[in-house]
Each structure stands twice: as C-alpha cells, then as structure tokens.
Description:
- The chain has a domain at about 50-65 and about 85-285: Biosynthetic peptidoglycan transglycosylase-like (Penicillin binding protein transpeptidase fold), CATH 1.10.3810.10.
- About 35% of the residues lie in helices and about 10% in strands.
- The strands form eight sheets. The chain has a five-stranded mixed beta sheet with strand order 2-1-5-14-15. Strands 7-6-19-18-17 form a five-stranded antiparallel beta sheet.
- The longest helix is centred in the last third of the chain and has 20 residues, at about 675-695.
- The radius of gyration is 36 Å and the shape is elongated.
- Residues about 1-10, about 15-55, about 130-135 and about 730-778 have low confidence and may be disordered.
Amino acid sequence: MPKKKTPAVKRVLVLLLAYVMLAASGGAVTSVLFAPAVFGVNKIAKTVIPTLSVEDVDFDVTSLPQKSTMYANDGTTVIATFYNQNRIVVPLKDISDIMQKAVVAREDRRFWTHAGVDVQGVLRAFIQNYLLDNHQGGSSLTQQYVKNVLLMKGIEDDDPIAQYHATEDTVARKIREMLISVQMEKKYSKAEILQGYLNIAQFGNNLYGVETAAQKYFGVSAKDLNIVQAATIACITKNPSLYDPSVEANQPAAEEQRNIVLKLMLQEGYINEQEYEDAVNTPLKDTLNITEVNRGCQDAGDYAFFCDYVVHQIQNSKEFGETVSERSKLLQEGGLEIVTTLDVQTNQLLMETARETVPPDDSSGMEFAAAAVKPGTGEVLGFGLNRYYDATPAAADDPTKSGQNYAVDYADGGGTGFTIGSSWKPINLIAWMEAGHSIMENLQTSTRYATTDFSCDRYSGGADSWDVQNALGSGTVNPETPFDGLVRSHNTTQASMGSVIKLCAIADTATEVGYHDAYSGETIDKTGVFTPAMTIGSVNVSPLTMASIFAVYASNGVQCDAIAIKKVTNTDGESLKVPSANCHQAVDSDIIQTLAYTLNQGTTRSDGAGFAFKFDDGRKAFGKTGTSGDYSVTAGTFIPDEISVFGLIGDAQDPEHHRISNISINGVYRSYWDGGTITAPALSSFLNKYVAAKNVPAEKSNNYGTPAAKYMTTGKYVGIGGRTFSNPTTQQRNSTSENSGTDTSQQSENSTNQQDANTNQSDTSNSQDGQTQQSTGQ
C-alpha cells in the first residue's frame, strides 16, 4: 500500500502546486501565499522532500561519454582524439578545491545544505521572474546536473522529444527536475553529485567537463587550477558560446563574468580580500594558454591515412561491439586509450618518399600508395600516400587531397585493388617448391599454352589457348629454370611452371601466404577467379596485403594478418580484446631461404630484374618489381625480421583511361614506365633512409637467404603441362638472348626517348586471358 502522506509532505506538495498555479497565471497578488513559507523552508524541505521519488529514473553520476585517444606505438604520440562530447572524466579528488568552491559560489551557494532543491532560490527566482519581470534562474546545482544528464541521454538515444523535454522552458520541466534532484540526493552524496556536475557541464564549444576545460584554456590539469583560472572556467556554463575565452571577441565579457565569480567567492569566504584584488586586476588574456584539441582523422596530418585505417579496423571488428553503431559509439564516447602499431618515423619517411616520387600536384595525376609491415608480427608500421588526407567534400575538387587510402582494402577505406604484374611471381616459386620441385629444373617454355594445361579440380580450362610473351614481344627462353625465370622475371617460364603444378597449387599457396581480393576480401578459391594470367599477377590486391605477403618472405615463412592496434584500455584501465594477427608458420623455412636467395640474385646479377634494389652500404637486398600493362607499376622489398614494404604507382580512380605511359612523372618523361624505373628506386631510397634512421645492422640482411640443397638440384627437364622432354636442341631454344627480359639500361631517369625505346621494359602483364602477356626483368 502507498505510504500515507504526512502533513509536512502535504505542505511541500501544496507549495509546489501553488508554484505551478502562480507560474501559469502570472498573478502578482498571489505571491503573498509564499511569504510564510520563506522562513525555515530549507529546513522543512530537507526533512520531508527525500520521501519524494520518480519511478524508473536512474542516473549514474560516474559514467559519462568521454573522448577516446589514439596513440602511435610509443604510447605517447597522439595521433587523434574522437568524441561526440569532448570530455575527460576525473574524480573529485583530481579537481582543485578552489575550482569546486568557484562553481558552488557561482551556481548554488546553498549546495551543501539543501536537499536537492534550493527552495529559497526557487522563491527568489519566482519573485524576480513573475513579479519583477527580471529573468533569474533558481535551479540548484543538482537540478542543473539532472538537466544535463537528461539532455545527454536524449542525444545518445537520438530522441528529439526527450531532448526537447530536457530543455523546454516550462514549469513542468522545473518540477520534474526538482523531483529527480531529490531522488538523486537520496542515492548519492553531495561530493558525488558535484563530481558528476563538474564532469558533465559544458565549458565551451563542444567542450565538456572541467578537466578538458583546464587543459584547453590553460594547459594544466583540473587539480592544478588556481583562483583566477577556476573563476574563469566557472563563469562559462551560463553561456558557453558567449563566455568561451578562447574566442578573442568573447574575452571582455568573459573577464567581466570571471570578476563576478570572484566577488561571489569573496562573499562566501572562499578567498580573502587580497586574493580577490590580485585576481580581478589580472587581465584575462594574460592568463590563457589555449591548447587546440584535434578531433578525428581529419586533423591528424600525415598520420591521417593510418588513423582512418584504424577507425575502419575498429568498426569492422566484433571485439568492439556487435554492430557497427555500437563500435562507433564506443570509439566516440568510451574514453578509450588506443595504442596502435604506427611507427612515427617509418610513416614519416614513407609519406615523404611518396610525395618526393610523385608530388601531390604532379601533372601525371598518378597516385603513389605504399604500406610497411613488421615481419613476424603483422604490425602495420605506416603508409605512404602522395595525397593529403581530406575526408570533406572539398577534396572532390582538389586533386592533391583524398579521403581514400588506396594502400588498403575496400572494407578498410581503400579502393578496389590493383593488378600487380610480376610482383606476384615469388608466390609461383613457393608453390613450385611446395610441389616437390627443384628451382634448377629445366622447363620447356612457349608463347602459347592451351588453357587445359592449367586445369585442376577447381579449374577446367577451355578450348582456347593463352598467348604470353616476355617484354616487347621478345618471345621466350627455352628451356629455362624457375630460378632464372624469377631472376629475369620471364612470363613464359611462369606460365610453364603453372602448366606443370596447375593453378590450384598456386591458388593454395597464395592463400597460405595471405592473399585475398582487395574488394571482396575473399581468397582465389572463394572468388572463383582462376585464370592462367594470374601466374603473372593479374590478381586484384592492395599494397598492404602485398606488404604482408612480402613479410612472409622476410620472416622465414611466418604469416600474420595485418593488425593496426596493439592495446586498448577503457576508462577503468581494463584492457579490451583486440584483433589478433594469428601468426603461424605458413611456409617451410628452407623454401623461404631459397626464395630469398633467388630474390637477392635478381638484385645482383647483370641480367637480374631487381637491379634497382640497392643499399648504400652494400648489404644484401631482396626485392621484386612488377608492371601490369600500363595500368600500374609495383615493387616489394624487405629487410629480414625488420620491415617489409610494398609500393604501387598508377591511377587508382581511372586506370582504363589514364595509363602510366607516354607521360612525365616528376619532370621526367618516359614512353613506358615500369617497376624498375620508378617504384623500386623509390622504395630503395626509403629503406636506405630507414636503415640510417633506425641504425639497422647489416647482419640482418647478410645472414639471410641461404638456399636449401634439395631445391637446387639440376639436370631434370620438364615439358609443358608436365609432359617430359629431353635433349633440347639449339633449334628448340628461342633466338632471344638470355637477358631478353632484362631492363639492361640502368640509365638515369632523364634518358632520352630513344634510349627509353631501346630499353627492354619490365614486368608487363595484362589481366585478361587470351591476350598476349609481357614481362621482363624488373
């Protein structure tokens, strides 16, 4: 049964009802009804009002939306902050005593004695508002806290009706706040309510909580606020847009309001006369130390592309919530501390390399997109894009800006991917060795293959054939070993390898080392895109995926999924689960060492396709270039157990109509560009700077790449499709010289057009079956 109302409770209810009636009628004469109630009313209210309650209302004064902060891998360099409400929640013990007193003096001087409703303040407000027509607030600090919480909940729930009722200028709203305030004071202590208010109140334009305000306006923590600073902050809540002191035009009004707060503090005995005089005579502008707080990836500078990738990782990962909206809310309001894998120095060097190679405003209009990964960990170290990050609509009219990171998959904020040409070929060599073959076996090669030669349980081929050649229609070398085929980057040998071990074996190896389609995220098996041309790179992939694949070559066969987040903690300091790299031994180390030996030989032999991969100090280099027709030019390289990097140049937005041929890039004209003439030199320049900056020992490279004897045996001849052949004659060999696929020019990038035309171009591959394919030693 409901409790019987006591006379005291009835009296309070009558007073509240009388207030409503008076507010509605606005009659001046009825104010006399309140005269008897003024005397001792706070004492009566404190005794009686706590029995009042509002059903189904519960406020947690310690749980508020807070900004999240994203850091580089050092845990201190701030990449970006995220918030719907820019707030840092702190306990009351971390807010200076003078700041607490300033707010109480300004907002509710009887805060420590009333029971949630300052009845004297309410009556005073009534007299001022309805009798003297002089607008004045009568809300207690507790009521203001309630109002802020109700508004915040309405915003969080996207409930415009709740937001309206939280702020409507009606007596009904005031009565509701009073009742809830009484309930609040039954459940929480005064200190908890003051803590809640100081953390939820607005202290400027999208600036919430006293800690954020202290950092913003004065560059100090709330626990270190002095008298002048505390009074300045305390005055803002009355009109955050008008009294925000970071706006120069607001400073005269803000100083005036600050001095009002100081006067109130003096009246309450919180400061003495001398402190008051010193404070009011201090110019406000001399006290400010404005600190800008960057919000989101838009303000992250050259960290922005990496920042955007991390945001997509959070939105795509179930570790952070069941739905995308839950994950986004956690990022914007959860007060997370996010330590990422970004290496500041690596990212800086890679961004500089991208813009030095293809300037943002270059007449070619080409994109440069690169990614770097830490081998054996999956950690993404940074990106290199020759654009400036801008996710606003303004970027659409500025070719130097982009909000899209073409180095990553579509799901992670990137494009639909690129074909990569001969940079794919190391996968073929791994598949060849995994099938039990030596890389020194002699293969019969041809410029035409029946598609049925590549058939397997998931690919049947057809009645057609596939025409394939090396650079500039130079035919083939017959026979040739898989070792020489990779060193020289010959397409015809890759095709022969595929005809022997079949496409399913190559697809399985690709999945093994981490390949997936940039647009769909699926493996070759799941996309079903089997084609003989995939042996020379007619796949769809992002630079980050390729950097991760080259990291397998750099880590003795350990494959890891790319990760961008090392650690996430919530406001309680608890660590949240983050996506795993799932590192595992994917490829036998003997195979990887043999591959690394081959890739190194490509950088040292006179007919090697990787001649552009060089270190200034002479340490061993490893790399593979690629050219996909005249759509894109690529390169991948690594330092064992240290870093893997893959880069690509092309037009990511319109490759069909904007080819990388017969154009000038960064002031150098070529009729034909390839991976060896621009991408590989750029990545080599980057690695040389990286080695110098990080002081990487040469032994990391020089002790890597010892081939396994079982994969180096010679003498066996293998025919097309696995059919045997023996005693190859001179007539069986193509008349093309052994280095027909090599860019032997090694000329400066300022070569004349005639020199460019005489140079064998590199790693060209078209992506359709039935067309002539070309590739040479870049």
